[in-house]
Amino acid sequence: MMRRWWVVLAYAMLVAGVFVWRHDILDWLERGDAPIGWLFVVAIVLAFVPVVPYKVVIGSLGILYGPLTGAALSWLATTIASVVIFGLVRYFGQRQGRAYLSRNRHTERLSQLMERKPFMSIALVRLLAVFPSLLVNVYAALLSIRFTTFITATAIGKIPAMLTFAFLGHELLRDWRTALVTALIYVLFIASLLIVYRRWERRQAS
């Protein structure tokens, strides 16, 4: 019990620290003054904390290192953060959290749907990139989903968003028209995925 509260306290302190110095951190990240290793560590820390929009981080890395390297760094950082958060929640709070979800009819229905099709559910949610990553990590950790399924679906599902926002960051200052076209294509892609996801969810629930 005490270890759980120590973890909660440490995370709260991390969130508070990032919130207080968020503007300085983003300025430092965008300047690229530090070695790439330190910037990668900061990218991991920011993936833990939903104070800073992570799309800004991806775009900044895309500007600094190009779309492919920026996307790769962002993808690896967010994947590492997802694994750690999943592991912490699974170890310290799965039983209590799952019991809490079962009290609500809507969350229980969603939980059962995700547990029946875990890979498809997590991959689609990651591809949509409209749900907070932290929420997805925590929710999945509370369910009966294997770690290998979670990490595989997460790693694959994150790729399109990382490539898109790293490319947008890289092109925004060079050719805004290309960036605009890319953004429109990505919006259409997300809208199409959302329609597919809604239909699939209704079919599975019926």
Outline of this structure?
The chain is mostly helical and 206 residues long. 86% of the residues lie in helices and 0% in strands. The protein has one domain (2-205).
- H/E series: HHHHHHHHHH
Q: Portion of residues in helices?
A: over 70%
Report the oligomer. single chain
Average pLDDT score:
79
How many strands in all?
0
* C-alpha Rg (nearest Å): 18 Å
Largest sheet: none
Categorize the overall geometry: globular
Low-confidence regions? none
Give the number of domains.
1
Number of helices: 10
Specify the structural class: mainly alpha
Distance between the termini: 40 Å
Q: What percent of residues are in strands?
A: under 5%
Describe the structure.
By secondary structure, this protein is mainly α. 86% of the residues lie in helices and 0% in strands. It has one domain (2-205). It is found in: Cell membrane. It is a multi-pass membrane protein.
List the helices and strands and how they pair.
Blueprint: H1 2-20, H2 22-31, H3 36-48, H4 54-65, H5 67-101, H6 105-116, H7 118-128, H8 133-142, H9 147-172, H10 176-205
